[in-house]
Predict the structure.
Amino acid sequence: MTSQASPAPPAQAAPLASRPARLPRWALPLAGAAALAAAYLVFRGTATLPHDDDAAPFQWINDVRAWVDANRNQSPIFLFFVNYVRLFVGGLHDLLHLVLQGPGWTGLTGIAAGLGWLTGGWRIALLAAAGFGSFGILGLWEASVATLALVLTAVLLSLAVGLPLGVWAGLSPRLRRLLTPVLDVMQIMPTFAYLAPMVLFFQIGPASAAIATMIYSIPPAIRITALAVEQVSPAAVEASGSLGATRWQTLRKVQLPMARATIGLAVNQTIMMALSMVVIAALIAAPGLGSDIIRGLTRANVGLMLPAGIAIVVMAIVLDRITMSAAARTPHRTGGRTRWVVHRAVAAALALGGVALGRLLPAEFPAEWVVRFAGPVNEAVTWAKFSWYGVTDAVRNLTTEALLNPLQSVLTGAPWWLVAAAALALAWRTGGPRPAVVAVGCLLATALLGLWQHTMETLTTVLVAVAVTLLIGLLLGVAAARSPRFAALQRPLLDAAQTMPAFVYLLPALALFGATRFTAVFASVIYAVPPVVRLVEDGIRNVSPAVVEAALSCGSTERQLLWKVRLPLARRAILLAANQGIVMTLAMVVVGGLVGAGGLGYDVVSGFSQRTDFGMGFAAGVATVLLGIMLDRITQGADTRASSRTPTPTTDRRNKRKMRTA
Amino acid sequence: MRIAHRIRLLAGVLALGLAAGCGGATVDTGSGSTAQPSGGATGSAAPSGAGTVKIAINPWAGYEASAAVISHLLEEKLGYTVEKKELAEQVSWEGFENGDVDVIVENWGHEDLKKTFIEEKKVAVEAGSTGNKGVIGWYIPKWMADEYPGITDYKNLNKYAHLFKTSESGDKGQLLFGDPSYVSNEEAIIKNLKLNYKVVVGGSEAALIESATQAQQQKKPLLFYFWDPHWLFNKVELTRVNLPPYTEGCDADPKKVACDYAELDLDKIVSKKFAETGGKAYELVKNFKWTNEHQNAVANDITNNGLSAEEAAKKWVEANQAVWSAWIPQ
């Protein structure tokens, strides 16, 4: 995100230069909008596609399900492949769980500290020890170890498959082109939507939870590794080749070592993604912290789920810091052999010290050390619920009446061809003919799936959530870019908002706003704001200081500087932020379905929990992906068009991929 | 000691996996690291005596109360280890197939699932009634029944639909529903009785309880899905709406339901393997039988008196020895 620094020509003029000069630049969009509005008024209520629970595609998927269910113990595909995969993954999980339980709580804490010491010195060692210790203090030692085992299983499998594939994709652009759409789908597909198929193929339990987690966490492993290998300087590769190295030697001795730091990032991101699946995995009987959160959600008990939420955040921080410092470490040892030995010795001492301590202390984490705060938390929530009721009620009703309801009645009341025409026009204008065709294709496919009406309902909540997210993101991002102190203050909050399982803040939201679409919008906004703030902050900060100084010396005020210089020059970062906001919001659609958002999210949820709705749930998962691709094409188009004038569009696209996985 | 136990188990499972190799792997050979009390597929590796019982926990307080008492007795009186798994109703049944679930302690009807898993797949069996009578229905706060004559008759619901309008239900009345995994005929009933209502999903039992409490305190109209046995009836005065009465078979076709829910004899379902090899644990589950009042007392302690499920179960067990001593197998 550094290329904005090159001063671009005055923003808007270029793309319209070829049009006849007489027509003002706003005339065409305005005419288009007017035509659409007129068509809506004339044709409103005709050619709508109301929802039908028994649409043919749902029945068809249900039949497939019935076949699988009946043939699980007969068909060779299952006997010789699927069931073995399940046995293998289940066995690996049990083994890892056993290994982690082996050293006891003191031993495992010591080992974590030793690892921290090895990768990042005493700071990380301390952090790791404190982090692991806190699992016990929260009263969640057993559950945390179970979660760690599940995450490790999924991460190991993801890396075993993802790293080689990533290296290969880095060397072969063709494979990369082939993989990209697949990975896109894996990431936009709501995780809920493949839980039911997971259960169908692999039954409930840790094995299918690990596989579901893997589907979600493997894309960053592949993407970032491919990027790392590809970015190795071509000069180094050529030099190696001209010195007579074989391709294999070049890969092992040049490309992989040079890509090492970035591959470390791939490992890091894979772990983070796997952790974010912990809660969802609990729905199919994976043991661990997720199950506490599910319990809290079904009992509407924030005090019950908050410790588990904190434990997940702490685990994320510890694993993040350890892997990041491992990746950042220079591969060459500095300071000679003795120092290296001392280094290892300290790590071993920490680990052994932990194990030895286990002999002195009880094997189970002592119950009297556990801090319980469920009571006060619940009291605080109850207090907030009653004393803020008037305000929250008003905010909710205003948003619902002023934004959600009108937009929804327009989208569901308009004929399908009119909505499609609007999408076509919009995508064409922002991106050109190809994205436009893709966008409309995706939109119409949702109708073929029998989910038009629910797609429109979901589109409504997504659009409102994105608008609110962008507004908040812009405000916070601009503020952070202008005041480093504010930025430092809000960074940990943003981090927490991103790693905290959505369910934890969903519940207070539910208490305050009830089971409504507004609650869903609220949850998406909390989830999507952090990356938007970061991108905006980054974009504004990277505006060339020379340009800023030039503007200042021409006598522009702070306000003019912001509106006329900084924001326009950061335009691309802001568009990217919008794109990211949409992707993140969509990821929350299903979670929203749990709290009254209806639409596709609820279809997916009910497809998971009611066997008769299996088909509808799966189709709704696919429809969510289609909706995601459509919105991505529309906003991505805007992005590429804006970037066509800058010198290095490709690096930026790469950065963007990277951002998306982050 | 537990570790050593698990290592032996793992070895057993791996050996079994290899042994199954020649004929391909079927689902039930892979029951993972589950420790059946004795015998069974993993029997060669499992020690005799107490083992692990896996109980599915479905998401409502009454269920949790029954499960808590059974778990407490299994652990304290018979020396078993209990693994509780937070699962939705239908998902729990899937667990019978590969051994991830041994017991469902409160089953609400589910004739279709019984047909699939008990009759066709033969992986589960019934383990008798819990003694609880369960009935699902539509409820309104009592003050509404007093204020609006005839509102408890479904024929008058359309007349009063405007009262139940919310920001989520548009121009229709709102019928608040609970967890998406609950047993539900709501959509069909509304459609077939031509009611001008829309089902709005609250997402959990807690959402229903909260709305009902507010409906009484702040005199807000509310029509909602609820069930008995439930402790809420002792706290909030509720009146049931009379749908066309249940007759045998009127709910046979889920699309054509136009009648009220049947009163169900809630029962326990266990996996076939657990029934065959569960020993005393199975006996205890089979013998478990109590009343709606018992369940409400425990559920009330869990939800309203700040007790954990374990504490509430302990309290009840200490006070009701006469009831549970009959369940303990000799």
Chain B has 13 helices and nine strands.
